[in-house]
Amino acid sequence: MPVPWEALIPCGLLVVMFGVTGNAFNVAKRMTNDGKPPRYNLDSWDDMMIERDRRLTGSHRGQSTDPIAPKSFSTSSIWPTERVH
């Protein structure tokens, strides 16, 4: 049985387009995570640590090795505050 060569062009286009969009999505996902793979199955402790890292470094994936927190960390609480009259 002869091979329908003209059917290979659309099949090749589909393979290329799915490959391009999959790789573009992977690159976009890594760019939003500072070049690191995405996190899965996060619990409340991980959420607290992500929020702490965001307040310390300004990025939710950044981590600081400085043992002393910056001055702005003492006033950047995640708890909402209200003025007492």
Characterize the main sheet.
none
Overall average residue pLDDT: 83
User: How far apart lie the N and C ends?
Assistant: 89 Å
Shape: rod-shaped
Number of helices in the DSSP assignment: 2
- How many individual β-strands? 0
Estimated structural class: mainly alpha
Which range does the strand content fall in?
under 5%
Order of helices and strands: HH
How would you portray this structure in words?
- By secondary structure, this protein is mainly α.
- The chain has helices spanning 8-32, 44-57.
- The chain is rod-shaped and about 85 Å long.
- The chain starts with 7 loop residues before the first helix and ends in a 28-residue tail after the last helix.
- The mean pLDDT is 83.
- It comes from Kwoniella shandongensis.
- Belongs to the complex I NDUFA1 subunit family.
Give keywords.
rod-shaped, mainly alpha, 85 residues
